[in-house]
């Protein structure tokens, strides 16, 4: 796993990832300390409905943010990989889940008219641990966030469909009302029969498919297939990485109901999120005093 992209490096004018495994251990040590001190941030990116006026926020995705003082160029994906390799992922994911549920619960308490779903990423390794579903219900009870407003996202390629423990956790979570999203869908080489065995509710179409929607070329045929597939399997579908008005229009045409991407909003700390919802999404409404929501 060490040979995959942990660090960005400029090469031939493009962002590329390079092997730098020697930098992993010090990073892991620093990350361990940050987890123990709770010194990590969680930012939130709106998920919007494409129907209606095309800009109603229906949920947010929690994304880990942390900058290593020694190695400021590390990406979130790189951090996650180091956490997985050095056995920190369980504590890291737990911290993000607890923090985001508690942030969301406080937001909801302050702005009663909000009705948001919270999406949180979980490592496939963590999902395959016995007792994971119990841990999630413990955190929900502790923070007061309702199970039916939580979505756990697991990346398609990490889903260990052959792991009985992972499947049992997914069933238990869904029985509690938590929904499951398959993240980066389309890149993990799932067969359709495998997909049918994974208890899931939502497909998040990988952003590479969305990036391929350009006005100078035909829309990728797989997008239409995924839209039809999700409809017949009764799964919700979210398009990730929507950056242009044109992409949003094509996705709407193809029948996608939900989207996420820089075209709508980047991720924000919780205190800035409420401003974003106020100013751009029309969600909170005029009656709400300007956000002095303290993080
Ligand atoms: P993801 O779950 O697929 O999250 C979407 C990624 O796309 C995020 O990158 C987000 O900042 C980025 N993004 C959003 N809109 C756009 C857009 O319009 N264009 C482009 N090009 N990118 C966009 P980020 O935050 O760097 O996270 C990378 C990955 O790290 C995530 O991919 C997720 O798999 C993982 N991750 C993040 N936070 C956590 C966490 O708390 N736990 C675990 N296990 N994994 C996490
Ligand atoms: Mg995700
Ligand atoms: Mg992902
Ligand atoms: Mg994704």
TrEMBL record:
Molecular function terms, GO-annotated: cyclic-guanylate-specific phosphodiesterase activity
Any coiled-coil regions, as ranges: none
Key words, A-Z: Membrane, Transmembrane, Transmembrane helix
Highest taxon of the lineage: Bacteria
Domain EAL: 24-281
Name this polypeptide is given: Phosphodiesterase
Source organism (scientific name): Nocardia stercoris
Covered residues, full protein: 284 to 578 of 589
């Amino acid at each position: 796993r060490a040979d995959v992209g942990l660090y960005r490096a400029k090469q031939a004018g493009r962002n590329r990832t390079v092997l730098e495994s020697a930098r992993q251990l010090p990073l892991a040590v620093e990350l361990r300390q940050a987890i123990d001190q709770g010194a990590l941030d969680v930012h939130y990116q709106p998920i919007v409905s494409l129907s209606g006026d095309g800009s109603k926020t229906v949920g947010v995705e929690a994304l880990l943010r942390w900058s290593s003082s020694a190695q400021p160029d590390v990406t979130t994906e790189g951090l996650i990989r180091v956490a997985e390799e050095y056995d920190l992922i369980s504590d890291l994911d737990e911290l993000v889940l607890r923090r985001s549920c508690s942030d969301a619960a406080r937001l909801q308490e302050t702005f009663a008219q909000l009705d948001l779903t919270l999406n949180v990423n979980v490592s496939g390794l963590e999902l395959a641990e016995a007792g994971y579903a119990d841990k999630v219900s413990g955190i929900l009870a502790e923070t007061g966030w309702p199970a039916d407003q939580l979505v756990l996202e697991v990346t398609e390629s990490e889903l260990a469909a052959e792991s009985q423990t992972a499947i049992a956790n997914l069933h238990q979570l869904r029985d509690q009302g938590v929904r499951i999203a398959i993240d980066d869908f389309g890149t993990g080489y799932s067969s359709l029969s495998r997909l049918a065995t994974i208890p899931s509710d939502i497909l998040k179409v990988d952003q590479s498919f969305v990036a391929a929607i350009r006005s100078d070329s035909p829309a990728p045929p797989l997008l239409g297939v995924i839209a039809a597939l999700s409809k017949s399997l009764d799964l919700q579908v979210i398009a990730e990485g929507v950056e242009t008005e044109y992409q949003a229009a094509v996705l709407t045409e193809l029948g996608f109901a939900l989207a996420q991407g820089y075209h709508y909003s980047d991720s924000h700390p919780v205190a800035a999120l409420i401003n974003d919802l106020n100013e751009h999404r029309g969600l909170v409404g005029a009656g709400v005093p300007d956000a002095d929501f303290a993080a």
